[in-house]
Amino acid sequence: MAKRIGLYGGTFDPIHLAHLQAALEASEQASLDEVRLLPCANPPHRQPPLASAAHRLAMLQLAVADEPRLIADERELHRAAPSYSIDTIEAIRREIGENTLLFWLLGEDAFYGLPSWHRFDDILKLCHLLVWQRPQNPQPMPDKLRELLKQRTVTDPTELSEGRGKIAFIQPTAFALSATQIRTRLFDGRSVRYLLPKPVLDYIQRHELYRATV
Ligand SMILES: Nc1ncnc2c1ncn2[C@@H]1O[C@H](COP(=O)(O)OP(=O)(O)OP(=O)(O)O)[C@@H](O)[C@H]1O
Ligand SMILES: O=C(O)c1ccc[n+]([C@@H]2O[C@H](COP(=O)([O-])O)[C@@H](O)[C@H]2O)c1
Question: What Pfam family is a match, any one (predicted)?
């Protein structure tokens, strides 16, 4: 049977429990062998992250250290250019060959922005998409995606055993939680103890990240 790899890109500033649980449940719901989490260096679509690439990677590595199904992949941090996902997916496809199944994982908020991604059509020629609802996503679905979903949606991602360009929706446990919320709480001196893995929180405190500068 072909190997099945999930790719999960994010700013991860910082990585939190909703990211990790979604990755794990995606791996269960789509029978993935592994999920590679890819922190981006220069997000093409938003303000630069607050924490450095080195800190975000270190936090991610701590977060996945005892979970063999989740792997930190630092490749985007070594590219100076904008972190276009297509560049990452092409590079990984070159490494793994044609037979391994690739799934790009993303929450609904990120999915709604997909039509504006760099070479978005090419992404669908290289991998399938696994999308999940994100609590409190206020945006409407773009028309272009409605059309795409009509042609490409499959209900059960485990039935995808070949090909590319299909889109499946999965239902990981919902957490109304964001990295923005965590950064804000930290700036305000409030607790985030149960929103992050403990080693990540210890790292944030040790390195005095996300503190208000006076
Ligand atoms: N609470 C959540 N539940 C489900 N998916 C999430 C959640 N938070 C983030 N994601 C997904 O994780 C991916 C990376 O998100 P990102 O690193 O921007 O996290 P974030 O918490 O949204 O951060 P920020 O608040 O800085 O925008 C996206 O696909 C996003 O949809
Ligand atoms: O390739 C693009 O044009 C592109 C545009 C927007 C977002 N992305 C990727 O989508 C992932 C989730 O982004 P974000 O903002 O939710 O952290 C992250 O890996 C980004 O690099 C990629």
Answer: CTP_transf_like
| Ligand closest in space to the Cα of 17 | 1
Interface TM-score (ipTM) > 0.95:
yes
CB 30 within 8 A of CB 170: yes
The verdict on the CB of residue 88 being under 6 Å from ligand 2 is: no
User: Which domains are present in the chain?
Assistant: 4-173 (3.40.50.620)
For residues 58 and 28, give the distance between their C-alpha atoms in angstroms, rounded to a whole number.
Answer: 25
The ligand minimizing its distance to the Cα of 51 is: 1
Decide which of 167 and 135 is more confident: 167
Mean pLDDT calculated for residue range 85-109 = 96
Q: Is 167 in the pocket of ligand 1 (CB under 6 A)?
A: no
Please report which residue ranges of 43-178 form alpha helices under DSSP H.
53-64, 85-96, 108-112, 120-126, 143-152
